[in-house]
Amino acid sequence: MSETRESRFENRDKRRKANLVLNILIGIVLVLIVVVASSLMMNSPKEQAQQDVSKNDSEQTTEAPASNDKKQTSDEDIKDKDKGKTESDDKESSDSDKEKASDEDQSKSDDPFEGAKITEGGSSANVEKTIINPDWKPVGTKQTGEHTATYDSSSQDWGEMLEAISYATGVSKDNMTVIWLGNNGSPQDAKGTIRTKDSGVKYQVAITWVDGKGWKPTKVEKLK
């Protein structure tokens, strides 16, 4: 009888140990289930989608400066082209203004009597028109010291007289034939008569000497 009790006690003790081990195993399995489930939830498609969206946003943010740089470069290119165009337009406008001014100056130089007072007739019946211009200036001189009019065709004075006549009439010295050049009533006054080689027009020009400045035209008469 005593052996039977001991046997029952041993069997009960074994069952208790077996139940304890079983409970521990069950607990371990539950913990593993919870861990696996949590891992699956963390890597769910929604979480993955959120990660993809976050990744795309990060890539777009990284690429944005490059796009801005490209736009900035394009804007600078446009500004450079506009600047080059403006400089080109300004240069063309400046060149046009210079040509216009040159044309105006040429037009003025082609008309030696611009601004002059022109009247019909003159000092003799052979005079068609008389021209007097208050803007006439002395033509300058290379002579020094006291001046004495010299009517020698090889002298400096003679050359400067012809320059004054050319200045007053607009007829170049190469295009004029000197008919007469001499004194006009006083030591410092002279008068010359010329004819143009190309058209045959005759002019009679009175000039006067200005000390240190040369001969100055005072009157031009166009002869018939």
Automatic annotation (TrEMBL):
Q: Name one Pfam family in it.
A: DUF1510
| Positions of the UniProt region annotated as Disordered | 45-127, 135-154
Protein keywords = Membrane, Transmembrane, Transmembrane helix
| Keyword Signal annotated | no
The annotated regions of Basic and acidic residues compositional bias extend over 68-111
Q: Which residues form the DUF1510 domain?
A: 131-223
The source's domain of life comes to Bacteria
InterPro entries associated with the record: DUF1510
Compositional bias annotation for Polar residues: 45-65, 141-154
Protein name according to UniProt: DUF1510 domain-containing protein
Q: Which organism is it from?
A: Bacillus sonorensis L12
